[in-house]
Structures are given as structure tokens and as C-alpha cells.
From TrEMBL:
Keyword annotations of the record: Oxidoreductase
Amine oxidase domain span: 11-408
Organism whose genome encodes this protein: Deinococcus aerius
Lineage summary: Bacteria, Thermotogati, Deinococcota, Deinococci, Deinococcales
GO molecular function, one term: oxidoreductase activity
Binding sites annotated in the UniProt record for FAD: 31-32
Domain of life: Bacteria
Keyword Secreted: no
Record's protein name: Amine oxidase
Pfam families listed in its UniProt record: Amino_oxidase
Length: 421
């Protein structure tokens, strides 16, 4: 009999399975779709498309513990952004990491001199404590925290809203200031990066040497406390294990365990465009400072040319939420906004695909962490491993997988690691 059955091959499930397999347990992962959960990559007409636009924070402690960065071939994204007001664009960045951003940063209209000094003060303040301690302490919305720091209206609207909107998947800066401080620190420590061959390389690396069966959906869990095992009813029959780790999305985890673990969903929408001409040579993240559907965009092929066929260009546009528009109307509206950036050249863009992700993250308002579930469930022998026990992030999902595995192994050092470490 299996020691542990893991349900779901996202980052939480794969990390749990990896820790347990390395500790000598007999582990199998059952996955309803393909390996990776929310981190997948596909090739369309020779373009390598990640599901959505998701960057990696190389400073995430859990990533560093489990992944071989060399084999991932991480490509650093410039530590700067381009703020766009229609045709007008301004580069803003960390001149130490991206010297090319210096002239724009010095003359910036979005950030006043006072704002630049406040950024420097924030870097100094948030660099000193351990990263995980930033997830503790007083909480409030990110917007109220930034205002208390004295940032100008212009800086909040033109930079923080679209930049952190792209991370929290909400532009209102209503997410927890603790999380803001943690992400800010991750940015200071390691910037952002993309695996050259796509974000799907991350789960693929974690899954190597694991027993993973894809295309099998688990529909029910039947614990047998009298003989110490659990039966999982699946689309391919029944399977028994001594323990089960439920590592699905929170909604499915709630249905399988009967525990009220779901914390709701933030959806987001992505449009992928191909271009035969270079409309923009910019490798930096593009932020829309105006009202509109576009929150941010990235010429992915300007960072990683191999993501597009030779001589071609790939643009990914992020729209926050799930607009109530059919694909054609959404595409037309986004093209309209892009034509304000690029003029008639935007007419030459070819739409490669539109993707609506219904559960991209769960909302994380102030004090959200105090409301999160633990790993135990009411079903004997069944544990939870998911972003929903930690934070809606790559770090949170992996850390949750590690802790569920540590509980089964009775590993006190793994269990006592603080959130975010
Ligand atoms: C567009 C987007 C942008 C994001 N941006 C960031 C970011 O900038 N930084 C960051 O850190 N995080 C970001 N995230 C969040 C991060 O990707 C997730 O928090 C994390 O990947 C969740 O991992 P998980 O293992 O908990 O869940 P999932 O990845 O959802 O994995 C769950 C798995 O369970 C499987 N499953 C479900 N039901 C069943 C069943 N009944 N039987 C078998 N298998 C089942 C699913 O198919 C899936 O593979 C983003 C996510 C998205 C989608």
C-alpha cells in the first residue's frame, strides 16, 4: 500500500511529494489535468506562452531550497518599469541594477524627489529584518501603508497601483501591507526572473523522479480509521493509502475535505499577441498609468528572444479581473489601448490567444493570515497542502507542501519554520 497519496500536481503537491519521497516514503501524486497547476507553459505557432503572466522571485526561500536555478536557466527581468500614459512613456528603475533606467528615474514625473527618497528609506527599512518577520506586525491595506509613508498621489497611481496590481491581481492596493513589505523585500533581494523555457519548467523540475499520474481526478475520500488507511475514489478507480495530502485548488479542497478552506478567488485575463515588427524594443515591464483594461504588459521576446520564432515578437497583456466582454470585444478594446501606445503599428498585431483564469489567487486583505486554515482536516489521515494555508503565491504553495510533509514525517524543524521563511 502507498504511504502517501497526494492529490494535485501543483507546487504544493509536488513539493510535499518530493520531500516525502526523498525521506523514503512510497508516494504517488494523482493529477486531474497536467503537471504544474497554475504554472504551465504551452507552445502556440512557435511562441512559448506561459499561462498568464507570472514572474518568479528568485529570493523566495522555498524556491531556493528545492530548485536548481542553473538548470532552470532563469533570465533576470530588468529592475525597472516603463510607465505609460498613452504615447508618453517614462522609465523608472533601480539605477544600481538597471543603469539604463538612471536618466528616466532622475527626471521622472511619476515620482517626485521626495518619493525617490521614500523608496530609498523603504529599501533600508525593509532590508534589515529577516524576510519572514515582515509577515508579522501591524497590518493595514497597502494603500494606507504607502500613504503613511508619505508617497505622493502620482507615485501611488502611476507606479504602485499598476506594479503591485500585477502582483496582487488587484489594482486597488487593498491587499495586506505585510504582504506588500514581504514582496518588496523579495524584489530588493533578487528582483524578478523568468525561466528561459517557460514557468512550466519549475513544476517539471520538481516532478522529476516522482510517481505522478496525470488525467485522473479524485472525486471522494473515504477514511477508514479502524484500519488506518484512506480510500480515494477517482475517475480511474479506487486507490488506498495510509495518508492523503489534498493539494488541489482551495475550492476543490473544500469539496473533498468538507472543511471551509476556500477564501474566494481573484480572476485575471491575459491576451497574447505576435508581431512581425518590433513595435517596442523595451525589455522592461510596461505599466499602464491610465484608466483602461490593460494593467501591465511585457514584450516577453525582448527579455527572452527564444520565446518567439526567429525575428518575431511576443507581447503578453495582463487585464485584472474577468471583464464581462466576449473575446472579440475584449481584443478590440485592448487593441484600442495598444494603438494609443504604438499608433497604427498596433494594427499589425496578431492575436495568439486569450486566457481567462478564474482562480489565479485568493484575496489577501489586511489580517488575512489570521483567518487561514491549518493543515489538519476533519477526515482522519487526510492533510491539506495548498497556498491557502500560507499565502497565495509560489512561496506560499511550496512552503505549505513542505509543512504537510514535515507533519507526516514528524519533522519538528520543518514544522517550526515560520511563514515566509
Ligand atoms: C496569472 C497568475 C499570476 C500569479 N502571480 C503570482 C506572482 O506574481 N507571484 C507569486 O508568488 N504567485 C503568483 N501566482 C499564484 C501562484 O501561482 C499560486 O499561488 C500557486 O501556484 C498555487 O499552487 P497550488 O499548488 O496551491 O495550487 P494549484 O497550482 O492550483 O494546483 C492544484 C492542482 O490540483 C489539481 N486538481 C484539482 N482538483 C483535483 C482533483 N479533484 N483531483 C486531482 N487533481 C486535482 C489541479 O489540476 C492543479 O494541478 C499567480 C497565479 C496566477 C494564475
Amino acid at each position: 500500500m502507498l504511504d502517501v497519496l497526494v492529490i494535485g500536481a501543483g507546487l504544493a503537491g509536488l513539493t510535499a511529494a518530493r520531500v516525502l519521497t526523498r525521506a523514503g516514503r512510497r508516494v504517488r501524486v494523482l493529477e486531474a489535468a497536467g503537471v504544474g497547476g497554475r504554472l504551465t507553459t504551452r507552445v502556440v505557432d512557435g511562441y512559448t506562452l506561459d499561462a498568464g503572466y507570472q514572474v518568479i522571485f528568485p529570493a523566495y526561500p522555498a524556491l531556493r531550497r528545492h530548485l536548481d536555478f542553473g538548470a532552470l536557466d532563469l533570465v533576470q527581468i530588468p529592475s525597472a518599469a516603463v510607465i505609460r500614459w498613452g504615447a508618453r512613456a517614462e522609465v523608472l528603475g533601480d539605477p544600481l541594477r538597471d543603469p539604463g533606467s538612471l536618466p528616466g528615474s532622475l527626471t521622472s514625473r511619476a515620482l517626485t524627489l521626495g518619493d525617490k527618497l521614500r523608496v530609498a528609506r523603504l529599501v533600508a527599512q525593509l532590508r534589515a529584518p529577516s524576510p519572514h518577520s515582515l509577515l508579522n506586525g501591524p497590518d493595514e491595506t497597502t494603500e494606507s501603508y504607502l500613504r503613511r509613508q508619505g508617497f505622493s498621489e502620482g507615485a501611488i497611481d502611476a507606479f504602485f497601483r499598476p506594479f503591485f496590481g500585477g502582483i496582487f491581481l488587484r489594482r486597488d492596493l487593498g491587499a495586506s501591507a505585510r504582504l506588500f513589505r514581504y514582496y518588496f523585500r523579495m524584489l530588493v533581494d533578487g528582483g524578478t526572473a523568468l525561466p528561459r523555457r517557460g514557468v512550466g519548467e519549475i513544476p517539471a523540475q520538481l516532478a522529476r523522479d516522482l510517481d505522478v499520474t496525470t488525467g485522473v481526478r479524485v472525486t471522494r475520500l473515504l477514511p477508514h480509521p479502524e484500519n488506518g488507511h484512506v480510500t480515494a475514489v477517482t475517475s480511474a478507480g479506487e486507490i488506498d493509502a495510509r495518508s492523503v495530502i489534498v493539494a488541489t485548488d482551495p475550492g476543490t479542497a473544500q469539496a473533498l475535505t468538507g472543511e471551509p478552506v476556500s477564501r474566494g478567488s481573484l480572476g485575471s485575463t491575459y491576451l497574447y499577441y505576435a508581431s512581425a515588427t518590433a513595435l517596442d524594443r523595451q525589455p522592461r515591464l510596461l505599466l499602464n498609468a491610465e484608466d483602461g483594461l490593460i494593467n501591465n504588459a511585457q514584450w516577453v521576446s525582448n527579455v527572452i528572444p527564444e520565446r518567439a520564432p526567429a525575428g518575431e515578437h511576443l507581447l503578453t497583456v495582463s487585464v485584472l479581473g474577468l471583464p464581462d466582454l466576449d473575446d472579440d470585444s475584449l481584443d478590440a478594446r485592448v487593441r484600442g489601448e495598444l494603438s494609443r501606445w504604438y499608433g497604427a503599428g498596433a494594427g499589425g498585431l496578431r492575436t495568439l490567444g486569450i486566457e481567462r483564469i478564474h482562480h489565479a489567487q485568493y484575496p489577501q486583505p489586511p489580517e488575512y493570515a489570521a483567518t487561514l486554515p491549518g493543515h489538519a482536516t476533519g477526515l482522519p489521515g487526510v492533510l491539506l497542502a495548498s497556498e491557502v494555508t500560507a499565502s497565495s503565491s509560489i512561496q506560499g504553495a511550496m512552503e505549505s507542501g513542505e509543512k504537510a510533509a514535515a507533519i507526516l514525517l514528524g519533522d519538528l524543524s520543518g514544522m517550526s519554520r515560520p511563514r515566509g521563511a
